[in-house]
């Protein structure tokens, strides 16, 4: 079933409404550690955008700027046509609810069981839910990532792949419109990476989400990407589909695909 | 050298801002009652055995150590009053606070530090849950309210320790012992001592949280956060104690 | 939910016991300070309270029965002290009880002592007033000490004059001490007297055997025996007194001697001054 899903033509779903627009983003850490030097990026609705780049090229910083974890020095970020850099905290939180963020390590709350991890986010936003409804939502989200039987485990008992899937389930429980993946396959074996990639595709089709996927795992990029941008030294260096970039004339870009 | 001093001041300033945020957010809903109760349990109930043992030993040792001096002055009958007075006014609050600095402050520092390093705090922030409200406010509040209660326990158990200490050499009826203690106590002994324990608790909580919350990325910094939380909290306890004693001395 | 109830009862127990300990401490200390329970007030006026402070203990028959609540100056020589006392001791304090201020313990904390009166049977009322006895003030003590020191001065001066005339004068006493002839004649007189009395006692023995006087002398002997026993006791007491008196005399003599020396020195100086 998953096979079938990812064979579906990608171009069909493209409609060119941008939901995230980043213009001329700058960020410098410390005194002279310039990480972003004018990044321009657009995410269209229903699109899976893969951001490629070496470690330290500013991929993570870019998406952390989108959700307001890092404040950029200069530039403009528009999410759902709202500039996230100069809105109030409560407005920002409203936008954050509509954006899911999957952290590298999964970032499960260590002190809580899987059920509590999922219910925590949910109950913080929908306080009038009955315990049965919460339970139903939790189980549904866990079934979406295929880990319904891990509901009573503690995060320390889970493997790396399971942690990421639970983390994804936790992100999904709020039914976000955009999901930002921070290196979803890093540190996992090939088979698990493939499972995660399939899950990303699966979610995209089921929940009609748009996503930005940061990775340097080419297998994952190949499976999930509608469009790929390559970051180099704080600027967008190249842009295109997987097939286009694979045959790019720039040797540095091609080096990713080898 | 100058840079060190500057850094110290910068840290004090940042801690102050961090603490200011606590007073702002403690009043703003949502109130994390469940997490607050859980923290009260962890901070209060779980620390009780440790506090009880140290309290008992302090009472016992204090009695045994002061006895020879008092006997020299022929004031042996003052022993219960003196032990109770020094326990309640000074020793129980400070020792309990130091134990809590070691146990609670480092615990909070390590817990929040590791949450910071593994991006759990970011995850909370991104899911539009205020991590300060959920993690810091609950812990600091629990510390502020639980440390005084722990001190009450330490007072009581310390006095029992003192009773045991007195009975090693002599034979004093427990009721007589208690009467002597109560006779030598006043509100002025109890109230400032209780008041300062709230400050102890607050500082233990806020320093632990600050150090944990501001751990830099990397597992090494978790240990650093826990360590410097203990050191800073212990130091601040002594400073608060000094200030508290001086203020008490000034007004009464 | 199940997990929560697992710790909440422990937490509840912890908090309850902790607060209970605190409340108990507050209660017992309060009871000690008479802030709870039924109490009544007494006032008393003093000339001076000699450092009595609010919160000092009030004692009745040596028992702590209350505390000093208030100390107020009424005018330049009157201080009003308000006491708060346990209701249960009111029935023992009569209207003619008196209050006095004393010190207590090593640290010299002041204590207000209420002493029972002798005559009155009327129990004191709430806010009633009792008389005060001014305690011995240090100043008063010093005054009396000064007086006795002055007296000692006068005595020693006179003593000096006395001993001077003994040494230098020509009176009977002085001659007895200094003149050998005089001493011999006195001792001769005494030995004569002795032989005289011996003869007299022999005469008396003879008289005793005379039947006419026998009854009279028997009576006398009985009285003598009784008196002798009494005398023994008296003598022992007298001895002790004498010893003490001697010591005092010695001290006085020493003082007198010293003063004499000083006087002589002064005289010498005067003479020298005069020479110059």
TrEMBL record, chain A:
Domain ABC transporter residue range list: 20-258
Cleavable signal peptide: none
Keyword Lipid metabolism tagged: no
Keyword match Transport: yes
Entry EC number(s): 3.6.3.-
Domain of life from the UniProt record: Bacteria
InterPro entries listed in its UniProt record: AAA+_ATPase, ABC_transporter-like_ATP-bd, ABC_transporter-like_CS, P-loop_NTPase
GO MF assignments: ATP binding; ATP hydrolysis activity
EC class: hydrolase
Keywords carried by this UniProt record: ATP-binding, Hydrolase, Nucleotide-binding, Transport
Protein name: L-cystine import ATP-binding protein TcyN
Originating species: Flavobacterium anhuiense
From TrEMBL, chain B:
Domain of life: Bacteria
Keywords: Membrane, Transmembrane, Transmembrane helix
The keyword Transcription is annotated on this UniProt entry: no
Stretch forming the signal peptide: none
GO molecular function: phospholipid transporter activity
Transmembrane segments: 43-64, 140-166, 193-213, 225-247
InterPro entries assigned: ABC_MlaE_roteobac (IPR003453), Permease_MalE (IPR030802)
UniProt key word Hydrolase: no
An annotated GO cellular component: ATP-binding cassette (ABC) transporter complex
Family classification: Belongs to the MlaE permease family.
Name of the molecule in the record: Phospholipid ABC transporter permease protein MlaE
Name of the encoding gene: mlaE_2
From TrEMBL, chain C:
Region annotation (Disordered) ranges: 220-276
Domain named Mce/MlaD: residues: 41-117
Keyword Glycoprotein: no
Membrane-spanning segments: 12-30
Pfam families associated with the record: MlaD
Superkingdom as given in the UniProt entry: Bacteria
UniProt entry keywords in alphabetical sequence: Membrane, Transmembrane, Transmembrane helix
Keyword Membrane: yes
Protein name (database record): Mce related protein
Species this protein is from: Flavobacterium anhuiense
């Amino acid at each position: 079933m998953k096979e079938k899903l990812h064979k579906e033509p990608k171009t069909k779903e493209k409609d060119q409404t941008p939901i995230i627009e980043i213009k001329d983003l700058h960020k410098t850490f410390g005194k002279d550690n310039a990480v972003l030097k004018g990044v321009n990026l657009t995410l269209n609705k229903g699109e899976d955008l893969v951001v490629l780049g070496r470690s330290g090229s500013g991929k993570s910083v870019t998406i952390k700027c989108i959700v307001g974890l890092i404040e950029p020095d200069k530039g403009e970020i528009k999410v759902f046509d709202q500039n996230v850099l100069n809105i109030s905290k409560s407005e920002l939180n409203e936008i954050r609810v509509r954006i899911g963020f999957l952290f590298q390590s999964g970032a499960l709350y260590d002190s809580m069981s899987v059920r509590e991890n999922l219910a925590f986010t949910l109950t913080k936003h929908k306080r009038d839910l009955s315990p049965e409804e919460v339970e139903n939502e939790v189980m549904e989200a866990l079934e979406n990532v295929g880990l319904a039987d891990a509901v009573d485990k503690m995060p320390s008992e889970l493997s790396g792949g399971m942690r990421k899937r639970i983390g994804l389930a936790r992100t999904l429980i709020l039914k976000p419109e955009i999901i930002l993946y921070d290196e979803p396959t890093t540190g996992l074996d090939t088979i698990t990476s493939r499972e995660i990639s399939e899950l990303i595709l699966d979610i995209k089709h089921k929940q009609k989400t748009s996503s930005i996927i940061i990775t340097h795992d080419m297998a994952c990029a190949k499976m999930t990407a509608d469009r790929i941008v390559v970051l180099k030294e704080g600027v967008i260096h190249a842009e295109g589909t997987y097939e286009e970039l694979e045959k790019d004339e720039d040797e540095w870009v091609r080096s990713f695909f080898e | 050298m100058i840079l060190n001093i500057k850094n110290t001041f910068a840290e004090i300033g940042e801690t102050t801002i961090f603490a200011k945020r606590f007073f702002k957010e403690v009043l703003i809903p949502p109130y994390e009652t469940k997490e607050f109760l859980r923290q009260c349990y962890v901070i209060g109930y779980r620390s009780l055995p440790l506090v009880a043992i140290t309290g008992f030993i302090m009472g016992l040792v204090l009695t045994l150590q002061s006895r020879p001096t008092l006997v020299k002055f022929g004031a042996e009958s003052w022993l219960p009053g003196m032990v109770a007075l020094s326990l309640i006014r000074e020793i129980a609050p400070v020792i309990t606070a130091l134990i809590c600095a070691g146990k609670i402050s480092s615990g909070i520092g390590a817990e929040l530090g590791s949450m910071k390093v593994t991006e759990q705090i970011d995850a909370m922030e991104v899911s539009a849950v205020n991590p300060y409200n959920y993690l810091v406010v609950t812990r600091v509040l629990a510390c502020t309210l639980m440390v005084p209660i722990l001190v009450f326990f330490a007072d009581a158990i310390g006095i029992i320790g003192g009773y045991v200490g007195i009975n090693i050499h002599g034979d004093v009826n427990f009721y007589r012992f208690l009467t002597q203690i109560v006779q030598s106590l006043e509100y002025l002994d109890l109230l400032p001592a209780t008041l300062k324990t709230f400050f102890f608790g607050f500082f233990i909580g806020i320093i632990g949280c600050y150090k944990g919350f501001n751990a830099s990325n990397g597992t090494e910094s978790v240990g650093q956060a826990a360590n410097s939380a203990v050191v800073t909290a212990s130091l601040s306890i002594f400073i608060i104690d000094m200030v508290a004693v001086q203020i008490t001395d000034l007004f009464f | 939910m199940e997990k929560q109830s697992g710790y909440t009862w422990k937490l509840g127990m912890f908090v309850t016991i902790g607060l209970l300990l605190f409340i108990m401490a507050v209660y017992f200390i309060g009871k000690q300070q008479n802030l709870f329970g039924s109490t009544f007030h007494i006032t008393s006026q003093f000339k001076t309270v000699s450092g009595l402070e609010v919160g000092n203990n009030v004692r009745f028959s040596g028992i702590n029965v209350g505390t000093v609540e208030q100390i107020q100056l009424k005018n330049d020589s009157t201080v009003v002290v308000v006491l708060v006392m346990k209701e249960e001791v009111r029935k023992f304090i009569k209207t003619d009880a008196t209050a006095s201020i004393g010190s207590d313990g090593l640290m010299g904390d002041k204590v207000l002592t209420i002493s029972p009166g002798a005559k009155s049977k009327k129990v004191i009322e709430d806010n009633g007033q009792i008389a005060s006895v001014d305690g011995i003030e240090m100043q008063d003590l010093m005054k009396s000490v000064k007086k006795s020191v002055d007296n000692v001065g006068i005595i020693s001066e006179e003593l000096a004059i006395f001993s001077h005339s003994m040494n230098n004068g020509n009176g009977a006493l002085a001659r007895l001490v200094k003149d050998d002839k005089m001493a011999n004649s006195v001792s001769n007189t005494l030995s004569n007297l002795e032989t005289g009395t011996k003869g007299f006692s022999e005469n008396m023995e003879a008289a005793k055997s005379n039947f006419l006087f026998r009854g009279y002398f028997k009576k006398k002997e009985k009285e003598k025996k009784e008196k002798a026993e009494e005398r023994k006791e008296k003598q022992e007491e007298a001895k002790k007194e004498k010893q003490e008196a001697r010591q005092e005399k010695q001290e006085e003599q020493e003082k007198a001697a010293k003063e004499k020396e000083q006087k002589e020195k002064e005289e010498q100086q005067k003479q020298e001054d005069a020479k110059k």
